[in-house]
Amino acid sequence: MKKQTLIIASLFVLVLLFVGGSYVYKNADHSVSNEKTSALVRPHAYVLGNPNAKTTIVEFFDPACGTCKSFYPFVKNILKQNPDKLKLVLRYAPFHTDSYYVVAMIEAARLQGKYLEALEVIYKYQDKWASHGTPNIGLIWGFLPEVGIDIEKLKDDMKKPEIDALIKQDIEDTKTLGVKATPEFFVNGKPLVKFGKQELEELIASEL
């Protein structure tokens, strides 16, 4: 009997510790520290939404990431619902094989005024060029003309040192901020502690 009582008491204590720990973690301030704030937004980052909005979503993404693809229309829809209140800052976390070069394509397309067009067509055909973890980025060349991108100019612009520099800066910032998976979101400097679309929506709503 005493043994059963001891087991029940131990379980009760464990439950209390778990619930208490979860509460403390959920309510703790996980905001990025002041010394790391500069790593969140860089002048070169592409911005969607109202550039003067008070609420800033920073997304670190990888164009080969399937979850990033699924979140893209979701976040764009939230922006659409709050056109004056939100801006989305897109940053790179090219963790997948060869994603570095895909990011360079997107940035080179930006020089043609085709940033979003390139990103969206790359997402559109992601299952073809990034399937099963064995990317074949050579296939992307065949998709980009669909949105009016000059491929020869793109190939030349990808070699520009400023593109290489900004990608390296983003990679360095992922290390500073502890970004280890994509997509990773920060809203007004607060990271998405529990990952999920509903949780992201709630975090954004709390900052509006």
TrEMBL record:
Signal peptide: none
Start and end residues of each Thioredoxin domain: 17-208
PANTHER family per UniProt: DISULFIDE BOND FORMATION PROTEIN D, GLUTATHIONE S-TRANSFERASE KAPPA
Family according to the record: Belongs to the thioredoxin family. DsbA subfamily.
Keywords linked to the UniProt accession: Disulfide bond, Oxidoreductase, Redox-active center, Signal
The protein's name: Thioredoxin-like domain-containing protein
Coiled coil: none
Organism name: Sulfurospirillum multivorans (strain DM 12446 / JCM 15788 / NBRC 109480)
Keyword ATP-binding listed: no
Gene Ontology molecular function: any one: oxidoreductase activity
InterPro entries per UniProt: Thioredoxin-like_fold, Thioredoxin-like_sf, Thioredoxin_domain
